[in-house]
Amino acid sequence: MKRIWRKSLLSLAVLALLVLAGGNPARACPNCKEAVSLGSGEVASLSNGYNWSVLFMLAVPFSMMGMGAFFVHRAVKRGSLPEF
To answer: N or C: lower Cβ tally within 10 Å for the chain?
Structure first.
């Protein structure tokens, strides 16, 4: 029983070491570096723009998949899907 605990603890320690040591520090993209060098008022509006653009880019695939699933569900309920 002790042997199993040691083996699992060793595996967990090695995994934690790989996760902690393997990661590189995050680097900003060139546009984000430019934003930091701008004035304080411009930085706020630029960062808000980046924030909204990322949110829209994340929302589009989910909304498209949701609409596709809705149309397939509606077609199944109506019985209008072709047989394969």
So the answer is: C
- What residue segments make up the domains of the chain, in order of their start? 29-84
- Taking alpha carbons only, the member of 23, 43, 18 closest to residue 33 is 43
* DSSP H or E stretch at residue 48: helix 40-78
pTM assigned to the model: 0.45
- Kindly report which listed range (17-21, 25-29, 44-48, 61-65) carries the lowest average pLDDT score: 25-29
One-letter amino acid at 24 equals N
Residues 6+ apart with CB under 8 A from 75: 81
At 43, which amino acid appears? V
